[in-house]
Amino acid sequence: MGAGYAGLTTARRLADAGIDVVVLEAADRVGGRVFSQVRASGVRLDHGGQWIGPTQRRFQALAAEFDCPTFPTWETGRHVEIRADGTRADYTGGAPESGPGIAEYERITALLDTLARTVDLERPWETPRFAEFDALSAEEFLRTETDDKDALQRLALAVQGVWCAEPREISFFHVLFYLASGGGYEQLMETSGCAQDSRLGDGADAVARALARSLGARIRLGEPVLSIRQTQTEVHVHTGGGTVVHAARAVVTVPPAAVERIAFDPPLPPARLGWVRHAPMGRVAKVHAVYEEPFWRDAGRSGIATLYGERPVGVVFDNSPQDASRGVLVAFVYGDRVDRWAAAPDAERRRAVLTCLSEVVGERAGEPIDYVEQIWPRTGWTIGGYECFLTPGGWTSHGRDGWRSPSGRVHWAGTETASVWNGYIDGAISSGERAAREVAAALGPVVRQPG
């Protein structure tokens, strides 16, 4: 169930093996948490996951197979850091070479990488100091390492940016697992050669749309799954569209927070329910402002920024199309900041974001020709973005049996169940491949009919 990258990959693998499949999707589109839209300005905007990195090999392979071109993320020019006190620092590369808290920040991020290298990605509970680290929040661990408030502020923005959560909310072990899954701290944070290396010219859901075309009528949109009943021989799936599907196996790919919207008979095992209840979705809004041209480039600015303090926006990127036919800035509002900002009236929200963008690239940013907000905690079956995070104790209490072990005839996929690139599109794809292997093994050899 679910026509995001995990569900589409599962279905394709099974269909290629000669197994009959049906994909049930609640929304009126495919892609799940990856969603692009062509605006009246002519620009295609990615409202969800959007980047592809060179080590995300499964995503790269599918993009190549379906002839979905990519182009480098724009990072030419000076980036800017705007500190809580309003001071600014221009820089190039990953971070300013010097500044408040930089030395401590770099020491601690190196320590995080060292600890992440001890993580067992296939059997996380076998990791040294697993229970100790899972009992701590990221904030608790970081505060045992430093009392440098500027370093802590930098680390907090990193947590907010990657997991869309506050350091007090997330298991420290989950931070280490995620770093190991993606190849280290720099891989997650940086642009060139890393997770934010490139974008897809036709939108990040272009590959999902191509996968959907290859599956044809097997995909049924507007069919939210309401209940799943297992018998000794079958799974009966009931949807809000009145459809009842009888199948030998089911694969559920919806985000963890959406699992409890489905009624299961018999009920899910306690470990799976416990896992889901320790796995809230992140809190993030993604806001695009579109301009006639990327005017900041003429001034030698990249459009990349980090912002601290009480401002709603935490990070900004240049999200212009490859041909620069329009200028686009994308602003991210994370964690506690999105809670406060999203509660404000529409005009106030817009004014607050455009004020931040004006700080980054100048006054012209205050007058976009198009402006659009995607507030993910308000969005349909996703209930947040872009991925879940584990709260302290979740891995220890429920990981071994609740993370991705099948629940009878029900199997689990979705990026949160991946060992490599967990939380990313590539992880969603690998999770679908794993779930398809599980189902195929459970069903046994398929006899293909002639003709």
Automatic annotation (TrEMBL):
Which residues are involved in binding substrate? F332
The Amine oxidase domain covers 6-439
The residues listed in the UniProt record as binding FAD, with positions renumbered to this chain, are E25, A26, V225, E416
Q: Which InterPro entries match?
A: Amino_oxidase (IPR002937), FAD/NAD-bd_sf (IPR036188), Flavin_amine_oxidase (IPR001613), Flavin_MAO (IPR050703)
Q: Which organism is it from?
A: Streptacidiphilus jiangxiensis
Q: Which UniProt keywords apply?
A: Oxidoreductase
Q: Which cofactor does it need?
A: FAD
What protein name applies here?
Monoamine oxidase
Write down the Pfam families for this protein, in alphabetical order. Answer: Amino_oxidase
Q: Which family does it belong to?
A: Belongs to the flavin monoamine oxidase family.
Under Gene Ontology molecular function, one entry of this record is:
oxidoreductase activity
